## 1
Amino acid sequence: MNRIVINADLGEQVISRHVFGHFAEHLGRCIYGGIWVGEDSPIPNVRGIRSDVVGALRAIRIPVLRWPGGCFADEYHWTDGIGPRAKRPSMVNTHWGGVVEDNSFGTHEYLDLCDQLGCEPYICGNVGSGTVREMQQWVEYLTAPAGPMADRRRAHGRPDPWKIAFWGVGNESWGCGGRMRADYYADLYRRHACYLRNFGDNRLFRIACGPSGGDTAWTEVLMREAGRHMDGLSVHHYSRFPPPQRQTATVFDEAGWIGILKLALRTEEIIASHKAVMDRYDPARRVAIIFDEWGAWWEVEPGTNPRFLYQQNTLRDAMVAAVSLDIFARHCDRVRMANLAQTDNVLQAVVLTEGEKMLLTPTYHVFDMFQVHQDATLLPLDLRCDTYTLGEVAVPTLSATASRDGSGARKVHLSLSNLDPNTPADVECVIRGRKLSGVSGRVLTAKDMNAHNTFDAPDAVRPTRFDGAKLSGENLAVALPPKSIVVLELVSP
Ligand code: AHR
């Protein structure tokens, strides 16, 4: 039996729009080709940034974009990416295929991209191979109204300082960002954070490098030694099969479907375990969890560079996105940002490009449908549901989030996913505390688990109108097709 009770008049926590954030790294074709094509490109662009991708991301109200990495961040030296492009030095991108990075996309181009997108920047600074001075001066260059760094910025065509809040102090410092031990990094974090100044009226939101997956020992040390100096702690978790089971995004069986959903659902226990540690040091929940890398990670598409991490994206990825976003929403009292890896052409992208062509992936459509939860109030929701089982693996059949519109439009939104790829799910919902007069919705589903969009058939998977919800007083009956993601809008008289 599938039953949901929602208290529409309760709810205190807001689901931050930043939970629907993205991440773009200098990796494969994410920046070069996917975002930056240069001013002379025949691909329509504004100051070198491709307009189709900007349009697509604006349509899902991208709230924040993390840059320049990832592993790349800890070998990136920002001064290489400012000034006349022809004079910028090159470097070898050692993490991602040893390709030559010519630094034509740097600080000014990134912030122009954020302006075009209407989103907030989130910069990750270099701790692994950089210096405290280098990071300090980057912040000064970006945000100081006056002084030597501001003069330098002005000389490069930007008189006014930018507003930058989100600042990461290193990436995966336990791994590609320097292979550090937690105590060592905690000290380094404190040292860097000390010199990350607030210039003028800019206020930094300092984010420490957090654990990989469920490594609570790292969180313990960071919270104990540096918790009071940080505003956020990052967490990374990828849904990825261990080596012998690796598969591409599109070729898999039902074990591959349920297996990856099980891994995505681990996000819940990972967050809960870090919250338990953080609550001991920070019971007021001042320090946010910034879940700044997540998503499904497959073998690359055949024939592509293994270090470019280019993968297709199917209905299975869409389901990973839906259950993950539901989990982030449930924990919005601590999780105040999340960034899908990565925006385009890398890992679980929302957009794929090929030359001048662009397509929207099934994951894109989940972000589109779920945008109704951005900055909305999370409604308490009691969910009882059947279990979907395959062999030894079992997951809940349903995943859901309910929220109340923040705009005063008096709308309730309910996202509801049926994880079972074979069986429809009838769901009885009771919505208490608000008179409702109408329901409408959209559904994302397909005949096959591996349905996906291609450049020849870009609309094979896209949301359509959903007529499977019937409202009667406070009762809502929903007939979910197998492997479907539905978002309902409930209006009041
Ligand atoms: O997103 C790809 C890589 O995964 C990032 O560069 C790194 O932070 C993580 O290991």
Note: Residues 17-374 form a domain with the TIM Barrel fold (CATH 3.20.20.80).
## 2
Amino acid sequence: MNILAIETSCDETAISIIEIPHANKNTTTILSNVVVSQIELHRPYGGVFPMLAKREHSKNIVPVLETALRDADLLKLKKKTSPLPENILAGLKKIFEREPELHDIFIEFFSKITTPKIDVIAFTRGPGLAPALWVGVNFARALSFVWEKPLLPVNHMEGHMLSPLLKRTTEKKAFITKPEYPILALLISGGHTEIVLSKKLFSYKVIGTTRDDAVGEAFDKAARILGLPYPGGPEISRQADRFRKKGIAASGKYKLPRPMIHSDDFDFSFSGIKTAVLYMVQKIPNLTEDIREEVCFEFENAVTETLLSKMMKATIKYNPQTVLLGGGVASNSHIQKEFHDSFKKEFPEVSVSVPEKELSTDNALMIALAGSLRFLGDKKSVLAFDSRKIKNIKADGNWSL
Ligand code: KG4
Ligand code: ZN
């Protein structure tokens, strides 16, 4: 059983192909995992520009598919290029009505290749930037139509949440750990900040969320104020680490708030901390390297303490057996260390798991993983191939877990 997964919710065009384990076995084979990032392109804007993301996805997705098929050893060229049948061409014209450029690249590529062994097509239906999501959704519809294979819509946040469960034994082999429930997950990315309670597989309740900016967004905005490039998370983290390595105490001159840390709920607010960075920087006459490192150190500490404090509070209330971190910000090594250390000290019985670095930022392997678990355990989420129903499949930028 081969599953092909597509991810285009933000600024990464990604396709992964995995072979799902047969009954009784728990080994997943990662046949390919291709990610093409648009970070460089969005950098001058200091954030992701949705229409630019859409254009890039349209341009890159067929080459990404080609690489993914080649890596998986599933790319076979026809002896001679042959045009697609009329009825297929007519269908594709409708599917790619809004992506004329992708339409042309798709047709050219598909008249050259034979049908690969793919059994189901998983794709990110949401949440994310609607114009970007639509490219992946229409591409998935087109693949389903041409290959006559079922579709499997996946929630991007479920992908992030389940990503820590994939443990590789070699580059290509992995197993999916079976977590103890209940799970408490902290999903922290450029677009989301959520605490999710899961009492069993596929059952999710969002118990806390941000009231304004997402954590990743706060990192990106604070970085911009400090004159650091996009994406700001890794930059701030590097600067903060530099300060920590000096082994000196903070001067105490650059204190930032820990917003909502004492509120009784599990919600967050990160826009105030970014504004506090702005006011602080405006008052610093000469922002030297040393000062900037200290401000980054304070910023990272403030965010980490806020996240940790809410997760600790939620742990007391909900008694989870497992804590999972997911999303781009979860790759932050200080946040990871503080979570591991604090839980070991306060709740040693709770297992804390984080995704491998490559799987914390956006990728299609996590979509393949969530898709494979749905395929095996939740048949109703699989949309059997039906050429007439394909047109009813839509992206949903706000799809909640
Ligand atoms: O999950 P992701 O790749 O995309 C979304 O779904 O949003 O997350 C991207 C976010 C960006 O805001 C980026 O600055 C942040 O994750 N990020 C980090 C780190 N690496 C990426 N934030 C803090 N520390 C990091 N090491
Ligand atoms: Zn994401």
Note: Residues 240 and 297 are 4 Å apart (CA to CA).
## 3
Amino acid sequence: MPESHPESNIESVLQEKRLFAPPPAFAKSAQVSSLQAYQELFDRAAADPAKFWGELAQQELSWFQPWDTVLDWQPPFAKWFTGGKINISYNCLDRHLTTGYKNKAALIWEGEPGDSCTLTYAQLHREVCLMANVLKQLGIAKGDLVGIYMPMIPEAAIAMLACARIGAPHTVVFGGFSAEALRDRLVDGKAKLVITADGGWRKDAIVPLKDQVDKALDDNHVPTVTNVLVVERTKQKISMQMGRDHWWHDLKQGVSAVCPAEPMDSEDLLFVLYTSGSTGKPKGVVHTTAGYNLYTHITAKWIFDLKDTDVYWCTADVGWITGHSYIVYGPLSNGATTVMYEGAPRASSPDCMWELIAKHGVTIFYTAPTAIRSFMKLGEHLPNKHDLSSLRLLGTVGEPINPEAWMWYHQIIGKGKCPIVDTWWQTETGGIMITALPGAIPTKPGSATLPFPGIIADVVDQAGEPITNESGGYLVIRHPWPGMMRTVFNDDDRFRRTYWEHLKPESGASLYFAGDGAHKDRDGYFWVMGRVDDVISVAGHRLGTMEIESALVSHPAVAEAAVVGKPDEIKGEEIVAFVTLEGSHQPSDDLAKALKQHVVGEIGAIARPGEIRFTEALPKTRSGKIMRRLLRSLASGQEITGDTSTLEDRGVLDKLRSEA
Ligand code: PRX
């Protein structure tokens, strides 16, 4: 079991006594409209999960062929809706064309230098069919993995839906990742084709995505990739390799706009999304077709209380799970209008988010605590300049939200009338697991509140036994759910070890270990405290310490590196790297700068260390394990408490203290 650490603000959050009941006007017409209704759903799901999920799958999704068995559970491997045939692209598009949504806005897009467009369901369907046919023309068949490395433009969603349509699993790589990181993912997934753009806008600069793809594929590093499909976005000069690289706008001219959705087995691979863990390289989280479709559909519907008239905006990037589940698949499966934004607030337009809410009449706004904290810092005069009266529901995701930020969000953005859903979940869970249902569950600032119906969450101790008082422990899930990851891509063993073998209660029950610490209060509300493993969350982005350490030691000047998170007011955590140097290399500001840049080159700008601390040695146990707990205290300037008797050499600690 990893060392536990996110214990700092437990006292204060558990003393949080404010309770916000769902506003009666909201509750009245909500999808789930009372605590009693929630409780009934929850109890029904707990009593007979197969019946509960089976009924929802029947009511909510369109099937080409019904399933035989709802759940086949051979812990830790689950299969949902076996025997069924379904296609998520069909559920997100085709079925809406005959139910009155044909001319409804499916996607409202806002591009960075003021470009914008709206695609109706009929138009989105057409674009997806065209791209699906282009992919087929380029030799992509069912089962071939496609890499997607795109800016936040409609074609990113179109690419995902086109892959799903023909049964080609996708792996979306966040456009902020480096060429190295892209290459690793394409190699691991044995991708056949990459969909990218000439560039993307990031604030006022262009991110040279195609150049990065070229670098990733250079020297035949990814021999499986034989074609690259390029969307024109920025019109900057790029090189196109004959035979390999193709413009989307050229190829789409030559294909038909008719492309029936491929009937997929329920358990066919839908996508692989790489995420950081505490050990090794990022792992490919595997999600399959039917269960993911159902889970993202129903969570989006009940948690965001989706109505025909809503304009829903999730500010995530499609490169993360939040973008997959709650920009693309969940909302579109419901026939909702989803907003996609390429930009980000910058000095010249610090109020762009509020401007867009007013411009499009956004009713539901879903963002990350790190964004809320930075908006807060900029001041309330910015949102107050805009008409935010269309908003009726707010959400947060990605990290714990501190009660101050929660209250600001509630008062300044929601004007005291919008419920807030603080949604806890992970890449691995596919969809939201613990959250308020906005018309049903009273909220407490800082608590994700209660599990979604069908989710049996708990807090347990080191031995995997339930904790019955309010003290902290490990957050676990006791029963499989349709949206759960099925395995680590090509590595069942890693799946078992990472998630299922840490906590083994005497009863022999299988517990899914999420990697988070949590408390359950007297009302059964969950308070998620953050990771208990070596994963750092910077601005809500998940990074493994080991990944950053490997990047650092790949620099010729570095002998050893240990990376920890240090609390940061806005970003949640900042990366601090303790580094020992090889041979004759000497610490200097220039070297620190070079090392930071090296990490950016290896992983991407999100992994840039905030601080490099050169040291002569790292504190280790006698068995050679780096004692990160001590480094965390040092990095944040706290007193070192707790047991240090396992330290091999106490002198190292004294030295580190004096170097601080
Ligand atoms: O530590 C938890 C934190 O984000 C982790 C999952 O990260 P990722 O797979 O990148 O997915 C992020 C978006 C779903 C979790 O293990 N986390 C996510 N949501 C919350 C949270 N921590 C506290 N409260 C949340 N609402």
Note: The longest helix spans residues 121-137.
## 4
Amino acid sequence: MLLARFGRIIAVETRLDSLLTLIAEEVRRILDADRCSVFLIDAYKGELWTKVALGIGEKILRIPLGRGIAGFVAKTGNAINIRDAYRDSRFHQDLDRITGYQTKSVLAVPLKGRDGKVLGVFEVLNKNKGAFNEEDEGFLRILATIAASFIENATLYEELRRSYLETIYRMALVAEFRDQEDTGKHLRRMSRFSGVLASGVGMAYQEAEDIRYAAPLHDIGKVAIPDSILRKPGKLEPAEYEEMKRHTIYGSQMLARAESRLLRLAARIAIAHHENFDGTGYPHRLKGDLIPLEARIVSVADVFDALASERVYKGAWKVSDAKAYILEQAGKLFDPDVCRAFDSRFDELSAVLDEENRRAVPEEGSNLAHHPASPAQGQQPQAGV
Ligand code: C2E
Ligand code: SIN
Ligand code: SIN
Ligand code: FE
Ligand code: FE
């Protein structure tokens, strides 16, 4: 039956963002309406937010609590059913003006959490035949009850996931804190490069995302390297370089046998990100496919960023020189497939570089796992480490 199907479909999705889209689409179909919007309360800002389709993309729109139909429902906890929105004094055309949509009939019910607290508002717009009736309202209330518990779970899950990702990122910051001027920058750049390259070699979205989140830990082992080596302004002596190379082993020891999938991935990256495709790298002189693909990807991202940046021991290269070097090392230091992805996605990589370099004083970590649970004013949730 309809409700069972509804529950089954939305139960699969744990990401709040996709869950909302899924719920809206199902409810729209079930109630034969032209649109369905889910508004959620951002108590901190005293606003309701929703995601709307605009052109090819999506945008987060916000309205003050209390304003408009949705605002009224959120505030009073009462349902509203109106035939002609433009004749109702509670309606504001804020959203219609932005989306170019024309609202006629509106049915809106509150979304209530387990404790009866209003979490948001469910709205269906423009019933395809006639106006919404009492039966529709009863139905929407039931759907709202089912959806609310999933939204509550997804919100909790999202918060957990966000704090987990933030913690990982901050561990990585600790490791790079001593040897770099703008620690956050290198990490964000190489992390995003890694994500771009991973999808460039054909990895699925989730796999590429995992690599993006695990990549910042590649040099975590540097915390065990003394300042006299790590911060040496000039060239390292051979013995110093030997010690420096051990950051790969230290890193993998720190992450070894983790339970978390992301940390195990990070361990594979830490141990192998200085292996070279031709077998001349360290610490194990692995060759070709014996080097995990994630490490072959991060290696290109890391070296590209190291070359393009200033370090205590070297100046920054021109981006075009760094690019030429990467491509020239295909089959030597680097996996030719990854180099091909590097070449074909180069525009995207340099856009990341520009964007990160333009970034003002970074709020460390806050951009890592930016989820729309509380998106920035008028902005799209952005995927950005
Ligand atoms: P890092 O600064 O993050 O550099 C990562 C990798 O980028 C290096 O791995 C190397 O493959 C590449 N790379 C960086 N700068 C250059 C460069 O000027 N020319 C070329 N061809 N490649 C470059 P590598 O060499 O295994 O070094 C690992 C880490 O050891 C470096 O991480 C850095 O922290 C440290 N290190 C390496 N050489 C020196 C040095 O001469 N002085 C100091 N103080 N540290 C060094
Ligand atoms: C809504 O549909 O509730 C928001 C539009 C408005 O009334 O301003
Ligand atoms: C993700 O967390 O997997 C993507 C990041 C985002 O959507 O903000
Ligand atoms: Fe390294
Ligand atoms: Fe690095």
Note: The longest strand covers residues 33-42.
